[in-house]
Every structure is written in structure tokens, then in C-alpha cells.
Recover the amino acids of this structure.
């Protein structure tokens, strides 16, 4: 199937061609025709599957049908994080170039002046975080009476972050006669209840867990005080192209960042204590390949479209299987291969079992030959551990990331657990 099969507005079709897109992704194939028909839609899809275009293209197509309403807010996209809002806005501007359709982002952490100006001048599409939009509504800066399309993106994440009351307040400001599109990586009972309240006979589409098929999962048992040693040694040994490291806390993110920088790796850090400018700068440098490693809390786990991430390292195991899926969704995107590597300590056993149940497969346990697991303290090991895989018919060739940098090795016998994944490209 090609984008031309959707019979989109000629201006939009030209923008898609100009951007170099030809074949839609599975979520786009399923969602776009229904959205174009004006139906309410629930889409289940991981980040990196093309879901942003699955709702932005129908929105732009709809707005182009009636150019007389330019300057009026006709679509609102609600998202949980500032980074995701900016990312969605970039996509909108790419597809809306030359159409006269304007968009603006509305979120906290920055001044309200530019946002007030955009609202005053009039934009057709608002990409918002819930709290700041309510601030503007309360001050009389934003009027939503003419909204025709509502999108709730990363809806499960908004629940996790406690945004449900704010989202409900926003929905109360919207016309009941509207189209509602909801996208989520998971579909918890709370979401089912919400959709029953705000949607009209929604269609369901599911892109499944296809992106996980390109990801190789591995668990690395290691004492807590040796995690940084192991990470440093692994990066030194194999020099991976692009590594996203997740920690549970901002304090630990800062500490790991400092240790990696001290070890000589181009590293950035991303968490909620950083200003919006600092966060955006770190993301931009990481996207451009000027930073080899980005250390982040879960603020970066949702929605961010970062190309060419070859490895995700869970320095701290996530709190839920859903968070694990969202973290590792930063790699293995657009049918590229990636590695998901999780450091585990004995107290993580229950969560490991929950993650394996979510994946419907056991995950390989790996020990690193040459690494001193009995070391005391936190000084980095200067050993040169071996990551060569043992020979065997089930072992695929070592992968290389962009720029020809070799991937991490995943050698060593499992130290505990229930066996290995039989398909090293992901789970079956």
C-alpha cells in the first residue's frame, strides 16, 4: 500500500511526497482510513510505529477541506510531556507546509508570552500539555468551542502521571459533537472507562507489539554498587553508536552522567529538574550524534522519536512491565535492530518475572567474562572484559550500528532463570 491510496488532499499529498514518505506503517494503514471517515478511534501502538502521522495526517486533511475557518482552533492534541508536544508539532509543520495551517505548542516550564501571542493571532491546531492549557483557559486566552477533533496521545502515560482530572476538565470545554482519537501503548481498565465516557462507538485498531521483534533482550545480574563499573566497561569494550540509559531517580541520573563523562564518553542527561532549554539541547545533541550516551529518567521513555538508538540500558529496572516496554521502545525502530539491556539485582526478581510474562518469553541472563563481580567500592574496573559470543548455530552475527560501530556483545552463560530467548532478534 502507498500513501497515494488514501486519496488525501492534493496539498497534503505533495507534502508527504516532498518529505520522502511512500509506504505507510501498519498503524497508519489501519488508522488513517477510519480517521478520514470521521470515526472515533482507539489505536494501540508502541512509539516508533508511526502513530503520530496516523492522527496528524487526517487532521490536516480535514482542515484543508474548509479553508474558510483558518485562524480558528479546530483540533487539540493532548500529550503528557513537553518533548512529545514539540515533536508532534514538528511533524505537523512538515506536513502542513504551504497550506496556511498553523500550529502551536502549549506547555509549562516556559513563559506564557509567546503562547498567548499564538493564541491571540489564531492557530488551527494546538498541541498541549494539560496543565498549561487549563491555565490559558482560566485566563481567557484559549477558547475551545470550535474544536472538531480531539487527540489524546500516550493516554496511558497521562494516567500514570496523574493527568486524568486535567484531561477531564479540558474535555468538558469541548463540543460534544467532535471526533475523538485516542492512542496508547497499553489499554488499562481506567482507559476503557474513559473511552466509554468520551467516545462515540469507537473503532479499535491494534498495531500489536511488532516493534519488539527487532529488539534483543538481555538481563545482566550485577550488584548495585558495580552497575556503573559494568556500564563503563561495556561501553569502553564495544563503543556502541547511541546508548540511552534509564535510571529510576534524578539524583542517580546525575551521578551516572558525571561518571560517564569522567570516563571520557560524550554524555548528556535528561530529567525534570533540567530547564526546557537544557532538555531540548541534550535531545538535539543526542539526535545529531554529538552525544554517544544520554542518561535519563522516565520522562524520556514516552513518545520521543530518536532515530538510530542502538542500545537501551535499564540501569535501574523499571517499576512496571509497561514502563519497560516504553523504555525499550526507543530502540529497534523503523524495522532496525536494537538491544535492550537491563541490569538486575537479587531484589528485582519479582519485576523480572512480571516483565517476562508481559513479553511471553524468558529473557537471557548474561554474565560478562573478565568482569570482577566481587569487587568492592565503586572504582571503575580497568580490566578488558571479553564480549565475544560462543560459537554455535543459534548465535547470529554481531550487529553493527550506524557509522559501522559494533554492537555490544551479549556473551556468557545465564547465571539464573529459566533459559534464553530462542529468537535473538526479539520475542516470538
Amino acid at each position: 500500500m502507498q500513501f497515494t491510496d488514501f486519496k488525501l488532499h492534493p496539498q497534503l499529498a505533495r507534502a508527504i511526497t516532498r518529505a520522502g514518505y511512500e509506504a505507510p506503517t501498519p498503524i497508519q494503514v489501519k488508522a488513517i482510513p477510519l480517521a478520514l471517515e470521521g470515526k472515533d478511534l482507539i489505536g494501540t501502538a508502541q512509539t516508533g510505529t508511526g502513530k503520530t502521522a496516523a492522527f496528524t495526517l487526517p487532521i490536516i486533511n480535514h482542515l484543508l477541506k474548509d479553508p474558510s475557518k483558518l485562524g480558528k482552533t479546530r483540533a487539540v492534541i493532548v500529550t503528557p510531556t513537553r518533548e512529545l508536544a514539540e515533536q508532534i508539532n514538528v511533524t505537523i509543520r512538515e506536513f502542513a507546509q504551504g497550506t496556511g495551517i498553523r500550529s502551536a505548542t502549549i506547555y509549562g516550564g516556559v513563559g506564557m508570552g509567546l503562547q498567548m501571542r499564538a493564541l491571540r493571532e489564531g492557530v488551527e491546531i494546538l498541541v498541549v500539555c494539560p496543565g498549561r492549557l487549563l491555565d490559558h483557559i482560566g485566563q481567557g486566552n484559549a477558547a475551545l468551542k470550535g474544536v472538531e477533533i480531539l487527540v489524546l496521545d500516550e493516554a496511558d502515560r497521562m494516567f500514570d502521571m496523574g493527568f486524568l482530572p486535567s484531561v477531564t476538565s479540558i474535555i468538558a470545554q469541548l463540543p460534544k459533537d467532535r471526533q475523538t482519537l485516542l492512542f496508547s501503548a497499553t489499554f488499562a481498565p481506567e482507559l476503557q472507562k474513559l473511552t466509554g465516557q468520551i467516545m462515540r462507538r469507537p473503532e479499535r485498531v491494534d498495531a500489536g507489539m511488532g516493534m519488539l521483534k527487532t529488539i534483543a533482550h538481555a538481563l545482566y545480574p550485577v550488584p548495585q554498587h558495580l552497575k556503573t563499573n559494568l556500564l563503563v566497561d561495556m561501553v569502553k569494550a564495544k563503543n556502541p553508536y547511541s546508548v540511552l540509559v534509564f535510571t529510576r531517580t534524578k539524583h542517580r541520573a546525575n551521578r551516572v552522567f558525571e561518571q560517564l563523562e569522567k570516563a571520557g564518553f560524550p554524555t548528556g542527561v535528561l530529567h525534570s529538574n533540567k530547564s526546557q532549554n537544557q532538555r531540548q539541547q541534550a535531545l538535539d545533541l543526542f539526535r545529531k550524534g554529538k552525544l554517544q550516551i544520554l542518561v535519563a529518567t522516565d520522562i524520556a521513555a514516552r513518545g520521543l522519536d530518536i532515530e538510530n538508538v542502538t542500545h537501551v540500558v535499564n540501569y535501574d529496572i523499571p517499576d512496571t512491565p509497561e514502563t519497560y516496554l516504553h523504555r525499550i521502545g526507543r530502540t529497534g525502530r523503523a524495522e532496525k535492530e536494537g538491544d535492550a539491556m537491563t541490569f538486575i539485582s537479587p531484589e528485582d526478581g519479582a519485576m523480572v518475572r512480571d516483565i517476562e510474562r508481559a513479553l511471553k518469553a524468558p529473557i537471557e541472563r548474561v554474565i560478562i567474562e573478565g568482569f570482577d563481580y566481587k569487587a568492592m567500592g565503586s572504582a571503575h574496573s580497568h580490566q578488558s572484559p571479553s564480549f565475544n559470543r560462543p560459537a554455535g548455530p543459534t548465535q547470529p552475527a554481531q550487529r553493527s550500528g550506524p557509522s559501522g560501530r559494533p554492537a555490544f556483545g551479549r556473551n556468557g552463560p545465564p547465571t539464573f532463570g529459566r533459559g534464553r530467548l530462542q529468537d535473538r532478534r526479539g520475542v516470538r
